[in-house]
Amino acid sequence: MRADTETAEDERTLPHWTATYLEHLQARKLAENSLRSYRRDLDSIAGELAEVTGHDPAELPLSAITAQSLRSAFARHAATRSASSVTRAWSSWNGFFRFLVIEGATSGNPMPVVPKPRTQDTTPKPLDGEETPERLLRLIAQGARKARDPWPERDLAVLATLLCTGLRSAELLDLTVSDLAGRRGERRLHVRGKGGTNRSIPVDESLERVLDDYLETRGQRFGRRLPGAEPLFVNHRGEALRRGGLQYLVQQSLRAAGISDRVRRGAMVHALRHTFATRLAEDGANATEIAKLLGHASINSSQSYIDVTAREQRLSVRANRTHRVLGELSSRESPE
To answer: Which key words tag this protein in UniProt (predicted)?
Structure first.
C-alpha cells in the first residue's frame, strides 16, 4: 500500500511529468539537439517555479503551477536571456502543457496568459551581395581561413552543405555518415528536422564531390573507417562538431573571406540557410518546393522568399548558382 501511495504522489509532481514528456518526445524520434533544448527549457523554468512557489524542485507538485506562478517564473527567466531564448522556452512549455491536458494530468493550459516577447522580424536575411557566397567558397577552398591545424576541405564541405541544402544548424550537426545515401549522382541527405519531421534533400554532383573530398581527407587524418552511425561533420580531434564549433567556423570563415559586413544583424549560420532559400526563389522554385526543402511545416513560412512558378525539387536545387563554383573547386572528376 505504501508503494502505491508513493507512486501516486510521484505522478502528481512536475519532475515525474517532465520525464514522461521527454520520453514521449524521444519516442517521436526528435533530433538529440532538439531533445536537449526541450530538457534545458523545462528544467530552467522548473527551477524558477521552485523558487517562486517555495517548493523543493524534486517534489514540486503540478497543483502549485498556476498562471500567476508561471508568469513570475518566466519574468525571472527573461531577466538574463534574449527574446529568442524566452520565446523558445515559452513554446516548450506550451507543448508540455498540451501534453499534460491530453494525458489528463491537468485540466487546462495556462500558457496563453503568460506573456512572451513580440514576434521577431521574419524577413529573410541572406548574405548581402550577388557573388558573396561564391567569394566565400572560393577563398575558403584556397585556405583563407587560418587555423592552427588547417582543414579547408572540412570547412568547405560544411559551408557548401549549408549553402546548398539550407539546413538548420541543429540539422547539420545531427547528420551521420549514413544520412548521405544513394547511388553516386543520385545522392540525397536524410535530415531529421524540427518537431520530429524527416525530409530528404537532393545532393547535386558538385556538392557530392566536395563531400567526398572532405571524407577522404578525414580518413587520412584519423586513419579509420567511418561507420554509418559516425557524425558526418567533425572537429579537428575527430569528435562530433558542436553548435559552438559550427558558429565559430562560420564566423571565422566570413571574416577570412572579408565579408563579415555582408551578414545582417541577427543572422550568422542562418544567413546561409536564407541565402539558399532566396536563391531558389530567384531561380524559379515555388512555395511548396521551398517548404519541402527547408522543412517548413507550412508553405506560409516560405512565402517571404518567393513569388514564382513551380519546379521539380532536384531541378530547383541544381538551379542554385552556388553549385557552379563547387564544380570548379572540386578536385574530383565526374564519374563516367
So the answer is: DNA integration, DNA recombination, DNA-binding
The whole-angstrom distance between residue 255's C-alpha and the CA centroid of its chain comes to 23
Residue with C-alpha cell 563547387? Answer: 326
The mean per-residue pLDDT over the stretch 57-74 comes to: 93
Burial of 320 (0-12, 13-18, 19+ CB in 10 A): buried
Single-letter amino acid code for the residue at 113: V
Q: Which CATH number fits domain 132-329: 1.10.10.10, 3.20.20.70, 1.10.443.10, 2.115.10.20?
A: 1.10.443.10
Of 17-31, 180-194, 252-266, 307-321, least confident by mean pLDDT is: 307-321
E strands in 75-170: none
User: Which cell is 61 given?
Assistant: 507538485
Cell of 58: 524534486
* 51 to 69, 111, 209: CA distances (angstroms): 10, 19, 54
Q: Is 74 helix (H, G, I), strand (E, B) or coil?
A: helix
pLDDT, residue 317, reads 61
Pick the CATH number of 2-113 from 1.10.150.130, 1.10.287.3510, 3.20.20.140, 2.60.40.1080: 1.10.150.130
How far CA 171 is from CA of 17, 32, 182, 191, in Å, comes to: 27, 10, 19, 6
Specify the domain boundaries for CATH 1.10.150.130 within the chain.
2-113
What is the average per-residue pLDDT within 255-283? 85
